[in-house]
Design brief:
OB fold (Dihydrolipoamide Acetyltransferase, E2P); five-stranded mixed beta barrel; 12 helices; 13 strands
Length: 388
Amino acid sequence: MRLPATPSVNPLKQISPSIYEALLQCRARAAWAASSDRRAVPQPPKAVLGACLHAVVEEADKGGFAGKDGEVRLAAARKAFDEHAALLYKEAHPLLRAKFSAPERLPYYNLYRERAAIEAALSADRVGRVAAAAASASPAGPANTYAERKLVSRDGLVVGRPDLIDVAAGEVVDYKTGVSLEEAPEAIAPSEARQLRLYTHLAHENGLAVSRAVIARADGRRASMDVSRAEAEAEGQRARELLAQYNAHAGAAFRDAAQPSPEACRFCPCIPLCGAFWQAASASWSEQCGLHLEGRIESVEEATVQGVRILTLSVRVRRGTVAAGEAFVEHLPLAWTTCDGSAAPQKGDILRVVHAHRTDEDSPVVIRVDRAATSVWTAGGQNEGADG
């Protein structure tokens, strides 16, 4: 695959929770988060399935499964999940479709599908109870729940779309498809807490009384925290400060905006195209941010295994989180490298392999690709550099 272009570092009028979190790590990462072309890099399968789960629960929060009960409701939620998955799969990066022949083939598809159905049923029950209570108290009164409602601060600088605001319960709810980074099941990660405080701030700015924030995880667990008005206001102010700092660097090159470090680059989608990462990274980063290598292809061998064309590449590694020297990239399906219409890797090409793993610590290094996470990119030809 050919590397996508780096986005421009354009000024931002508003800051959202996702851009706020990106800015805490790296200005270039925030520029990517604000870019309209984020699908130029493949999403992990779990991100696609998580988006489907969110969409089904949002539908339930908006009353989409009203009038349905029991197995009928669960079946409707499963059908909705399948429909969202089919649509997102069709729109996904071609690498995802090259790896998985149908959305149902995505890892943990049935697990996410069933969790979406259960969460949708719980949400539908809650919406029904709130609606009934509101109707009996004041049929013409204001809404008591807001699902995926866009909220903007009074000064227009902070924007967000909480999954659910339950005014009757005085809480904001955010659905998470991953797991907490903390060991305790009831823990809320620092990044989650920042997002919840920002959502609470936006609720206050829009006249919605919220004092409690809840994380609803895909495995059914709940974690909650109290959020004072002062805490929410402080988080909003910090977001505004970061927005101003980012805009002061607007117009800079993507490379110059980057702030690479093992912590900042962990899970970063920009790794394939970020020249600053490839200049700064070293083997000592691998434990925190994974295995990534760039090097020149010295030889290409092809074989057919169970009807699949497989490549073995001999690569002279020059940088990344793998020490410089000889390495072999094994068991690489040819279709992964040509799914975007690119030519197959050739001797002399500069290659970037992202999110792979090594078989052992022996030399020469043997790299194996991961079906869910790995992407392989051609960063330049025989007479080109690959400075990103």
